[in-house]
Amino acid sequence: xxxxxxxxxxxxxxxxxxxxLQSRGRAGRRLVLRQADLRELxxxxxxxxxxxxxxxxxxxxxxxxxxxxxxxxxxxxxxxASLVQAHAAGACFVQAVLDEADLSGADCSRARLRQASxxxxxxxxxxxxxxxxxxxxxxxxxxxxxLRQAxxxxxxLSGARLKNxxLSGARLRQAxxxxxxxxxxxxVAWIDLGEDGQPQLLHAEEARRWLLTAxxx
Length: 217
Description:
The protein contains 2 helices and 5 strands, in the order H-E-E-E-E-E-H. It has helices spanning 8-22, 204-216, and strands at 32-34, 52-54, 170-171, 190-192, 201-203. The protein is elongated and about 55 Å long. The protein starts with 7 loop residues before the first helix and ends with a helix.
């Protein structure tokens, strides 16, 4: 059950962080929490830009429209969390667990999600230029997701739903796509299957054929 209030000490820390943001560091104090229990809290719309929330448990928390730009959530748990229309551009979710999270309309452009688990996530998310190397996106709902220029090397996209997603410029070397759905509808000007500094580009229909073959193999 989502709680409708925050513990007084945490509320005070968040208010201090919002003052820190508004004053550009001249007042308040940056929010720094590690291994904190933040489960089932209502953090919707809160200003958490540049907050340090490493290894925290945010499972089932409400983060709709929260400001998480540049926040560090390395190793945090966000299973079943709601991040609808969250502002998470440039945030760090390295090795975080977001299984079953709702990311509908969330902006995760340029976010770092290397080795993150995003199994069965929901929503058309903006992952433009995001680092999703070795991420687990199996069975994820990526319908209409923006994956342009995303780094998906060695990512697991098995069973992912990709209807009308945009994969133009995505880097897909060693990505697993077995059972991925909707690839006949993806937008793809080109993809890169090469290593760093050694691009191996496939364009348009050639790229689509590769995606379909990878999904069926």
